[in-house]
Amino acid sequence: MKVFAFTVAAAMGTTALLTGALAPKAEALVAQAQSITASEKRQGAEVHPKLLEEFGGAYQVAQTSYVVQVGKGIAVQSGLGNARDDFTVTLLNSPVNNAFAIPGGYVYVTRQLLALMNDEAELAGVLGHEVGHVAARHSEKRQKAAQRNSIIGLLGQIGAAVLLGDGAAGQLGQQVFGTGTQLLTLKYSRKQEEEADDLGVRYLSSAGYDPRALSSMLGSLAAQQAIDARAQGGNARSVPEWASTHPDPARRVTRAATVASRFSGTQRNRDVFLSRLDGLLYGDDPKQGMVQGREFLHPELGLKFSVPQGYAMQNGTSAVSISGQSAQAQFTMGQFSGDLTRYVDQAFRAVGGEQQLNYGQIQRTTVNGLPAAYATARVAANRQTLDVTIFAYSFGNNRAYHFVAITPAGQSNLFTPMYQSVKRLSGAEASAIRPRRLRVVTVQRGDTVQSMAARMAYDDLRAERFVALNGLASGATLTPGQKVKIVSY
């Protein structure tokens, strides 16, 4: 069941498109590249295990060594000291389109984002962008800015850049959704994003890759984001891929292409890349539970629930995050001794931290045969009033799970259908859950986008998913012998 997200993109003003030249600061950064310091290495080494835990752990498969090889190769282009040895590149077992970097030369990319890429140059472009953040010391600068501005309400684990503000609401956001590691992966400024893009393009060119690869990758990501938003409901505030650390990719596609026009390089290595991608796990790992439409199913825990229409879910290693226009929640677990009342009280204490939340009387009930308990506390801060609800369930054998929900005051019933949907997963339902995998297939004579899309393991938006997955333009045609990706069971 935890999630960060990374959107390689930033809101752009008109000045960003003037000439396609590198941002002036980026030019200076190339000349001033310095070795990674011992202090930065210690900081990264301390946080690295925590990030692995939050993002599903390192994904140790056949593709891992290839990703590390490409990442270290692009890191050398940064001019940072002994870059190949100083950088640690990790492929994460996460179903979120995500990539980020932290001080000390630690660079991460998820298997889901890897699956969206269509050649080695795109992989190098994304990793080069992240190396650029390391070279420019952007993470340290964002931490200092965050500390100056008391940004403690970032809901890092649900991947939403929503600020609850200072005081009680800010503390609430910190306790519910955590701030332990996201100070190292905060949202970058537009200027910093442009610098990292510019450095990434330069690294691509100096390594012999096609410098347009970063732009094409951003285009695929923007298309996938649009599909995710449609699939989750028109009014859902879907967790924007890459959004907690980088702003919207669609606005940076043109700029990245314009900057790339100043550089040379042709290498894409599409065939090699696609051959390495075949068989990659796609979407949720059943061992961590599965999001299927508006349902969450966990075969190992033996439970399921559904979210209301218009709400988005993101599944992580220790929590499922739910977000919509006006409310958000997490589904997680805690220590349980058999007493649900005590369990709910402990959950409120964990949420409130030093601030004691007055939740009134804990109510007992039964939901689909499961003993349950719940209570709601009202919190006032920053001219707003919020309701915080804990709704817990006993699954016996010292196992309990609960929702932590934040809604506008008086609207805690927004999640009532979700609370009432929790139930045990039957054996038949559990055995029917199958993981999706990425398959690389060869286009045959007579194959079309529609016929290939029909093979996608989805019930909705098949053609749109196929086009985005393969980086195809609208109205594209397929050629016999062409290699394409599909998602199958």
TrEMBL record:
The name this protein goes by in its record: Peptidase M48 Ste24p
PROSITE patterns: LYSM
Cofactor: Zn(2+)
Keywords, ordered alphabetically: Hydrolase, Metal-binding, Metalloprotease, Protease, Signal, Zinc
Signal in keyword set: yes
Organism: Blastomonas fulva
InterPro entries from the UniProt entry: LysM (IPR018392), LysM_dom_sf (IPR036779), Mito/Outer_Membr_Metalloprot (IPR051156), Peptidase_M48 (IPR001915)
Domain LysM: 439-486
Pfam families for the chain: LysM, Peptidase_M48
Keyword Signal assigned: yes
Residues in the signal sequence: 1-20
